Every structure is written in structure tokens, then in C-alpha cells.
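Q: What changes when S-adenosylmethionine is included in the input?
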Amino acid sequence: MDFMTEHRPHLLKNRHDYLPAAGHDAFLPGYDLLTRVLGMNPAYRELVTQAGLTAGQRVVEIGCGTGNLTVRVKKACPAADIVATDPDPRALQRAQRKTKGMTGVRFERAYAQELPFDDGGFDRALSSMMLHHLDEATKAAAAAEVFRVLRPGGVLHVVDVRGDDVPQLLEKAGFDCAVVGYGRIRLAGKLTYLRATRQA
Ligand SMILES: C[S@@+](CC[C@H](N)C(=O)[O-])C[C@H]1O[C@@H](n2cnc3c(N)ncnc32)[C@H](O)[C@@H]1O
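A: The predicted holo structure follows.
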């Protein structure tokens, strides 16, 4: 996670054009354990609750990583139809294994700033601990892409660390954005929950 980036930069020699979930491919097998230790499970549950998913809704997740949130979405609302995206094929493989046997879930390799979907095709978008992996320009491009793929009236739900700049960025992309809660996890500190609506 981003803790690695800050505290162990000497270990991070990424040959990717994205920052992987645990900061480096070699640490990916430990990512799920790390999220448990940091206390992310209640945050995933909270985000799913805030999204208020109902049967038949089309959901897109950006930066799904190893599918921690994806799995919870399907458990909370088995009849939701979710496409979970991430640029990291290794993370997607892990996510796929976790959701084996579940229906209405598929994974697609994609960058949040370049979503391979038609305009207005989704009712909900979800993002957990992903936006802080992006630089400012990429974050703005990702916000514009999520706005594009949501239908009018569709809603983006975000949980992240260091989210102070995000509401403004989402407003700039066209969303009505509200901070809907705060939380804490070990080491990384404050979490912010955001709801961003593409007005009908
Ligand atoms: C800290 S992980 C979060 C994973 C998952 N959402 C969770 O909460 O466990 C951040 C994820 O963002 C992904 N990521 C990095 N750059 C991205 C981009 N430009 N677009 C979409 N996802 C990206 C990484 O590959 C990684 O899987």
C-alpha cells in the first residue's frame, strides 16, 4: 500500500505505468493480509452500505486490486452486476480466484482514466483506496471518465486516505460531491468517504 511508497522508496523500482496495490509486485501476495492488519474490512463494509446497492444495478469498480471490495459487493447484493477494473493483471488474477463461482461479476484490465465502456452505462461506481495512487492530472482524468460512464442520476462512492483535494476535483468533473463520513485505519490514519452524484 501507499505506506510502502512513503517509507520504503528504495524497494520500489516499478516497471509499470501504475502503482501496484502493495507498492511493488513482489509484495502483492501479502496485500490482503496487510489490508486486514490495517483494519480495512470495516471500511469495505461501510462503503458497500453507503452505496445502497439493489438487484439489477450495473456497478463499475475502479482500481479493484485483489477484489476485496468486489467480493463484498457480491455478498451484500448478489443480484448486482459488477465490472471490476484494474491495470494490474496480477491483482486481477487474484481477484478472479476469489470470486470463482459467483455470477454477475467480471474483471477487466483498465485504467481509471481510460475506461473501455460506453457513456452512461452504469448506475454506481466504486473506488476504494485507489485515487491516492494517481497523480493530480490522472486523478482529474479518472474523475471525468467515471462521470462519463455513469448514467445521469448515477453515483460514485469513494473511500480513500488523503482525500482533501478529491471533492473539488470531482466537482470540477461535473459531480455534486459530499463528504459522507470519516474513519481510521492503522498506519495510514484518516479515511474519507465521499458520495459524488451525476445529476439527472
Ligand atoms: C491500494 S490498492 C486498492 C485495491 C482495492 N480497491 C482495495 O481497496 O483493496 C490500489 C489499486 O489501484 C490500482 N491502480 C493504480 N493505478 C491505477 C489507475 N491508473 N487506474 C486504476 N487503478 C489503478 C492498483 O493497481 C491497485 O490495485
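Observations recorded in class: Residues 1, 18-21, 35, 62-65, 68-69, 86-88, 91, 111-113, 128-130, 133-134, 138 surround S-adenosylmethionine (CB under 6 Å).
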